[in-house]
Design goal:
- The protein contains six helices and eleven strands.
- The strands form four sheets. The protein has a four-stranded antiparallel beta sheet, covered by helices on one side. Strands 9-10-11 form a three-stranded antiparallel beta sheet, with no helix packed on it. The chain has a two-stranded parallel ribbon with strand order 1-2.
- The radius of gyration is 22 Å and the shape is elongated.
- The longest helix has 18 residues.
- β6 and β7 form a beta hairpin.
- The chain folds into three domains: 106 residues, no CATH class; 57 residues, no CATH class; 33 residues, Ubiquitin Ligase Nedd4, Chain: W (Single Sheet), CATH 2.20.70.
- It is of the alpha+beta class.
- This is WW domain-containing protein.
- Pfam families: DUF1995, WW.
- InterPro entries: DUF1995, LPA3, WW_dom, WW_dom_sf.
Length: 215
Amino acid sequence: MVFPDPSEARIAFEEYGSQVPFSLSSLSKPKQQEDRVNKYLVMHPVFDVREYIQMDELYMSEVAPKDAAMIIFNGDLFKMRSGGIGGYYPDFFFPKLAQVRRRFMPMVETAYYLRVFRGPPVGALYREYPGPWQILRAVNGGRFEVLWEQQQQEPPKQEFVLRVLQSAGPPPVMTKPSEEENLPEGWKSAVDQETGKVYYYNANTGESTWEPPAV
């Protein structure tokens, strides 16, 4: 498992709480692995563009010669695909990264994108490539329903995702009639799928709160 730098690898080791059953390494100070290692999990190289370059160097020097697999967990990898003048990393300002993009990215097969919004309401931005981007809302039973989907290269903005989730509102929860009667007009209650706690939302305004709104 490869982290961007040694300090992050150390934090991961401490969080695990015991001797890990795999090797920990970093992109900035890579550790030579045994020949039997055939899978490299690269964890979120995104903070610095040099991490993309170091990822490419690791692949070319160690992963490819073994015919091993590199699995990259990175929600912003789509940024590396766009070059040219209007991309996130213009070729003129990042010439070495441009070389990496042209050589490395054609070998990358993107599998999925997932970003969870803890809410309330609980939802997610999801894409299973090459399918469309989807905004999902949590429903009972640990399931999700599709609120919005569209085929496009880049993910929708966070503000748009939140607006879709809040305007749709969460699935309603059964409450006592007296409890519903005590809520102000336009307000309803629901259960947070992650915590099991009841919260309150106004589908007209997009507001949500853990505390009962004042009448």
